[in-house]
């Protein structure tokens, strides 16, 4: 009754209020903040302490409603990717168990509500932790902004154990590689503008970013088959 089949302001509002209704006073103090608080723009995808109520401090019904809120903003495919990214923390905990300074916990994802959820009100919500951040802002006129949103994965491929072979973002990686491998020698000269991989995400977690330089090849310079692969990559 509280899940939405597609992203919509009314669906998000309904789920957010259902979740809020289950919180005690201590939980609400952590979870609910003013709409215009600077923390609403303080997002990141690294493991760190955050504002909000962590999943590990919720009861099972509260967790289910928190996940329903996440589902209200994502497609089914996006929801599966997001929850799988969260679960990778268990694998990282095993891989990094020799380093006690690294805290890996699939329950250290924080839920925050900014403002008062309601139709005709400005409010927002965020679910965030290591390698995942989903931010939604709802305007009183019915507008919805779904930015910033971030999905990363570590490990990119699980190499051993019962989940060996798991690649959460395989679609993006494989389609990107397929597109590059299809380029002619002439197209590659225009497309591959550096042979040095970036150290991190170009725009990192900046609150305001400018458009990147227009490097690369124009889509109109691609063949019909290459353009179709590009469209699949964008849709992925």
Task: Describe the 3D structure.
This protein is α+β, with helices and mostly antiparallel strands. Helices cover 36% and strands 12% of the residues. The chain contains seven helices and seven strands; from the N terminus they run ααββααβββββααα. It has helices at 9-20, 25-31, 60-73, 76-95, 170-181, 185-191, 224-235, and strands spanning 32-33, 53-54, 110-114, 123-129, 132-138, 144-145, 149-151. Strands 1, 2, 3, 4, 5, 6 and 7 form a seven-stranded mixed β-sheet that branches. A hairpin with an 8-residue loop joins β3 (110-114) and β4. α1 runs antiparallel to α3 (60-73) and α5 runs antiparallel to α7. The longest helix has 20 residues, at 76-95.
Structure in a nutshell:
This protein has 236 residues and is α+β, with helices and mostly antiparallel strands. It has helices spanning 9-20, 25-31, 60-73, 76-95, 170-181, 185-191, 224-235; strands spanning 32-33, 53-54, 110-114, 123-129, 132-138, 144-145, 149-151.
């Amino acid at each position: 009754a509280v899940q939405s089949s597609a992203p919509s302001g009314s669906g998000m509002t309904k789920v957010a209020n259902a979740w809020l209704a289950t919180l005690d006073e201590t939980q609400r103090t952590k979870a609910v903040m003013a709409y215009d608080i600077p923390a609403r723009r303080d997002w990141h995808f690294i493991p760190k302490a955050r504002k909000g109520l962590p999943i590990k401090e919720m009861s099972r019904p509260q967790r289910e409603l928190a996940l329903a809120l996440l589902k209200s903003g994502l497609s089914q495919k996006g929801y599966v990717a997001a929850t799988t990214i969260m679960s990778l923390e268990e694998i990282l905990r095993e891989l990094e168990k020799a380093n006690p300074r690294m805290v890996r916990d699939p329950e250290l994802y924080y839920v925050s509500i900014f403002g008062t959820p309601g139709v005709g009100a400005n409010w927002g919500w965020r679910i965030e932790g290591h390698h995942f951040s989903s931010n939604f802002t709802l305007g009183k006129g019915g507008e919805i902004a779904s930015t910033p949103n971030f999905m990363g994965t570590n490990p990119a491929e699980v190499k051993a154990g019962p989940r060996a072979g798991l690649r959460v973002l395989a679609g993006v990686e494989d389609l990107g590689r397929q597109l590059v491998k299809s380029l002619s020698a002439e197209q590659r000269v225009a497309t591959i503008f550096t042979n040095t991989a970036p150290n991190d995400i170009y725009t990192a977690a900046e609150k305001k970013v400018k458009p990147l330089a227009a490097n690369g090849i124009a889509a109109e310079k691609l063949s019909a088959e290459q353009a179709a692969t590009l469209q699949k990559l964008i849709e992925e």
